[in-house]
């Protein structure tokens, strides 16, 4: 008999079916015992009246079940399975589960959940976060491919940093010292110049952040875009805006159940306000008495400014534009009107930065000068700099942190909740 999945049962007539999955819940009512079976698609009620079968059951063991599908209005989803045969196919070796899989409340800390990630992910609510994450990635890929972008895969073991010297993990690379990539920055630019023109990458990025916070990981997934022959940075913000619209439409279609479970109403994207950083700093000071660090706004400022934007523009998103040269990496393109500013931006979503992007310097001499201006040595960036000698077109791009975007969509409080197997200062296992 061919296996059917729980979410397919609704289409199946009353007949004998074969199901496989885990024992989710066991509830006795006098003569009958209801057993709930869970597979990757959902949970279904089994009616078992064989005492021997019941006495051997244990939560979370995996089983194969043959039974009659019966439509019953009183059962969840109006379906139940009257079991004829049940075979245990995956034994358990535990006295107590680390936390509950079948109750609304987990009764464990986030740390315990992460220690037993392979068990917490058995909870349908925890899995839902990763279904949404999977669909974010799917729509990112689909949106960009439809626009003619090429998907690339660049090295994660690299010779020099891209985002400034700190926050890098070093690697012993035979006789040399290498680093884990903080971002595919240099390579995505290089591939634009190599003739791809427009590229994207979905890959891990590494940051040796020296603090454990609710929004930092040491390894995260970066959704990177780079586009050649642009007019200016507005084209990049238009592209990201277009992606967000596409994403939320896609999630509405593909993740209805998951969004409902978290009570999420997705935002409608109209034009996202674009506000120069210095204006945002002024508003923070005047309206909230909040002082910002030079050339930036801090985490508290991001939250306050998002609140202001929500009230004034009814938008969950805001682009902060024109960051000063001193606060951006050496590749950021200076602004035409004020050379101390750059054509770069951040995107803030419900109080958290989820993106940095901007136009890059594409002229060899200007880039070399800027590297020196930043106190760096051009020879340390040899292969990157050399690639600008051969007609590099005007270009730019951006990167979205996948876990941050997922976290904000699902209204989670800690980035670890939207990370499959988080890496932080204290955790490299499981
Ligand atoms: P930036 O360093 O701002 O820019 O990173 C881009 C985005 O990546 C995410 N991110 C992180 N997520 C979790 N934990 C971290 N430690 C972490 N660090 C960054 C954030 C952030 O907005 N090369 C540029 C991008 C570009 O200009 O194309 C860059 O890496 O969501």
From TrEMBL:
It catalyses: tRNA(Asx) + L-aspartate + ATP = L-aspartyl-tRNA(Asx) + AMP + diphosphate. It holds the Pfam family tRNA-synt_2. Its EC number is 6.1.1.23. Residues 130-430 form the Aminoacyl-transfer RNA synthetases class-II family profile domain. Residues 185-188 are annotated as: Aspartate. It is found in: Cytoplasm. ATP binds at residues 207-209, 215-217, 353, 401-404. Its main location: cytoplasm. SUPFAM superfamilies: Class II aaRS and biotin synthetases (SSF55681), Nucleic acid-binding proteins (SSF50249). It comes from the Bacteria. The record marks 76 as: Important for tRNA non-discrimination. L-aspartate binds at residues 163, 207, 356, 360. InterPro entries: Aa-tRNA-synt_II, aa-tRNA-synth_II, aa-tRNA-synth_II/BPL/LPL, Asp-tRNA_synthase_2, Asp/Asn-tRNA-synth_IIb, NA-bd_OB-fold, NA-bd_OB_tRNA. Gene3D superfamilies: Bira Bifunctional Protein, Domain 2, Nucleic acid-binding proteins. PANTHER family: ASPARTATE--TRNA LIGASE, CYTOPLASMIC, ASPARTYL-TRNA SYNTHETASE. Aspartyl-tRNA synthetase with relaxed tRNA specificity since it is able to aspartylate not only its cognate tRNA(Asp) but also tRNA(Asn). Reaction proceeds in two steps: L-aspartate is first activated by ATP to form Asp-AMP and then transferred to the acceptor end of tRNA(Asp/Asn). This is Aspartate--tRNA(Asp/Asn) ligase. It comes from Marinisporobacter balticus.
